[in-house]
Amino acid sequence: MEDITCTIIKPGATEKWKEIFTLIETEGFTIIRSDQVQLTKQQAEEFYSEHKGKPFFESLVKFMSSKPIVVAVLQKENAVEDFRTFIGDINPAKAKVGTLRKLYGTTIEQNAIHGSNSNKNAERESKFLFPKSM
Ligand code: CMP
User: Fold this and answer.
1) How far apart are CA 18 and CA 24, in angstroms?
2) Which pTM was predicted?
3) Residue 116 pLDDT
4) 76 CB under 6 A from ligand 1?
5) Is residue 120 part of a domain?
6) Do 100 and 23 form a contact (C-beta atoms < 8 A)?
7) How many domains does one find in the chain?
8) Ligand 1, from 56, 61, 94, 124: best to mutate by most atoms within 8 Å of Cβ?
9) How far apart are the CA of 105 and the centre of ligand 1, in A?
10) What is the CATH number for 60?
11) For the chain: N or C, fewer Cβ within 10 A?
């Protein structure tokens, strides 16, 4: 499935989920699944398993399991790459004007929006977040 990507609206930005969904749709993405969930620590560890062992891992897991988050699967041609362009640099301070992380993020960890980094991960993340329907 090369036309889907997965996003998470992270703690700190979840209150703005409607506004963010509108921007995502205006950019040409179709929201094919969405939900509000609170990850357990174990689920956050599994979701971010490729970062295990990195200095920021423990803090990231704690942050991502601290509050409910909004998760979604988005569909568009070239979804992974186009969505990563739309969310902007991992560091909100460096993100271009108009990108979601510039608009809603504060720090590298609290950068408001996750976007899958490959088609393989988009599929893995979709199945992880929507196990019954993907
Ligand atoms: P995300 O797109 O969700 O993917 C992995 C997350 O790890 C990333 O956004 C950041 O929130 C976090 N992250 C990546 N690198 C760092 C870093 N150097 N310091 C703190 N957090 C990081």
Assistant:
1) 10
2) 0.96
3) 98
4) no
5) yes
6) yes
7) 1
8) 56
9) 12
10) 3.30.70.141
11) N
- Furthest CA-CA distance within the chain: 37
- Ligand 1 centroid–CA 13 distance in Å is 15
Domain for residue 125, yes or no?
yes
Residue 15 counted as domain residue = yes
CA distance 75 to 29: 6
CB of 108 closer than 6 angstroms to any ligand 1 atom: yes
Q: What is the pLDDT of residues 13-72, one digit of tens each?
A: 999 999 999 999 999 999 999 999 999 999 999 999 999 999 999 999 999 999 999 999
Q: Name the residues annotated as catalytic.
A: 114
CA angle 68, 112, 123 (to 5 degrees): 75
The pLDDT value recorded for residue 101 is 98
